[in-house]
């Protein structure tokens, strides 16, 4: 994911601090409501998808919220990302979730919603204080 951070749409918004995602990953592995899925190709890790189960803050409906969804550039045309998403949706449903919340990078909203069946519910913004 660090490669994506340094070269992707978030490079000017999110500071590079490699220790932070490592600590987060350690906490997520131990968290009972967090699930981590990985995609391997030819013995190499090429993708990861992590989600957290929680009761939605308004409706109370059990929700799966994507925390991490990353696929290495060389594996993006192999459906690795979709396989991870499909497996995450299946697992979340089996664990009692009735809805899934995903994010996508700026500029990919129309393609994402068209291909995924998801609907846009809001647009987020971030600013340095």
Automatic annotation (TrEMBL):
Organism of origin is: marine sediment metagenome
Q: Where is the N-acetyltransferase domain?
A: 1-129
Lineage start: unclassified sequences, metagenomes, ecological metagenomes
Please give the SUPFAM superfamilies that the UniProt record associates with this protein. Acyl-CoA N-acyltransferases (Nat)
Full protein name: N-acetyltransferase domain-containing protein
Q: Which GO terms describe its molecular function?
A: acyltransferase activity, transferring groups other than amino-acyl groups
